[in-house]
Automatic annotation (TrEMBL):
<dbReference type="InterPro" id="IPR036291">
    <property type="entry name" value="NAD(P)-bd_dom_sf"/>
</dbReference>
<feature type="domain" description="Ketoreductase">
    <location>
        <begin position="8"/>
        <end position="199"/>
    </location>
</feature>
<dbReference type="GO" id="GO:0016020">
    <property type="term" value="C:membrane"/>
</dbReference>
<dbReference type="GO" id="GO:0016616">
    <property type="term" value="F:oxidoreductase activity, acting on the CH-OH group of donors, NAD or NADP as acceptor"/>
</dbReference>
<dbReference type="InterPro" id="IPR002347">
    <property type="entry name" value="SDR_fam"/>
</dbReference>
<comment type="similarity">
    <text>Belongs to the short-chain dehydrogenases/reductases (SDR) family.</text>
</comment>
<dbReference type="Pfam" id="PF00106">
    <property type="entry name" value="adh_short"/>
</dbReference>
<dbReference type="InterPro" id="IPR057326">
    <property type="entry name" value="KR_dom"/>
</dbReference>
<protein>
    <submittedName>
        <fullName>Oxidoreductase</fullName>
    </submittedName>
</protein>
<keyword id="KW-0560">Oxidoreductase</keyword>
Amino acid sequence: MALKLTGTVALITGASSGIGAATARRLAEDGAAVVLVARRKDRLEDLAAEIENAGGTALAVEADITDRLQAEAAVQQAVERFGRLDTLVNNAGLMLLGPVVGADTEEWDRMIAVNVQGLLHTTHAALPHLLQAAEQGPRQVADIVNISSIAGRVAWSGYGVYNLTKFGVNGFTESLRQEVTRRHVRVGVLEPGGVATELGSHNKAEVRDAMIDPFYESTEVLAPQDIADGVAYMVTRPRHASVGELWIMPTDQA
Ligand code: NDP
C-alpha cells in the first residue's frame, strides 16, 4: 500500500519554476508540508501562497544552493519551522549546451556549481535530519530524489559538461543509496527526457536556435506534472520498497 505524506516535510530545490514547482504542488496536494528553495523569492512566495490557499502548507526560502552556507541555512530553516525533514528533492539545475571546443568555460563552472556542488551541499546538510526521520518519524523511512536526466544515461555531442554533471549525479546517487539504505533513507534518481520548462531558455541564442528550439518544435514533450507524478510515486512506496531509478520520456523522443 502506498504511504501517505501527511505529517511529513519535503524540501524541494529549484521550486521557483518548472519541475520543482510542479513537484512542490504535487507533494503538498499529497499532504506534505513543502519547503520551496530557489533564488527568485517572488516566485517562491507566489507559489507558497497558492499552495496555502489550496489548503496546503508551504515555506518559501530564498537560497543560492551553490553557496554551502546558504544551502545549510535553507535546510536549517525547514527543520526550525517544521521540526523535521522526511524528503529531499534535489531538483535545481542548469543546462548550458554547446561544443567543448571554444566553449565559454564560465558556463561550465555555473553548471557544475548548481548541478553537482549545489546538490552535494543540500544533501550533506539534509542527511542527519533524514536519518533521524527514518529512525523516529511516523513512516520510519525518508527519501532523497535526485533529478538527473536522460543525459545522465546517454551522452551526445554538444552536451559534454551537462552530461558530466548528470552522469555524476547518477553515480553519487547509487553510492549514497548503498551507504544509507539499510538505515531506511531511500536514495533514487529520476531521469526525465524533454520537459516543457525554462531550462533551455538560459542558453545562448545560437544554441537555442541549433539544438533546443528544433527539439521542442518536433517533440510532444512532457509537462512538469509528469515528472512530479514520478517523484510522488517514488516517495510513497511502502517502506520495504525503494525505487533506485526512474526514467520518464516523452513517448515520441527516441
Ligand atoms: P527550470 O529552469 O524551469 O528550473 C530550474 C530551477 O533551478 C529553478 O527553480 C531555478 O530557480 C533553480 N536554480 C537554478 N540555479 C539555482 C541556484 N544556484 N540555487 C537555487 N536554485 C537554483 O528547469 P527544469 O524545471 O526543467 O529543471 C529542473 C531539473 O530537471 C534540472 O536539474 C534539470 O537538469 C532537470 N531536467 C530537466 C529536463 C527538461 O527537459 N526540462 C530534462 C531532464 C532533466 P532560481 O532561478 O529562482 O534560483
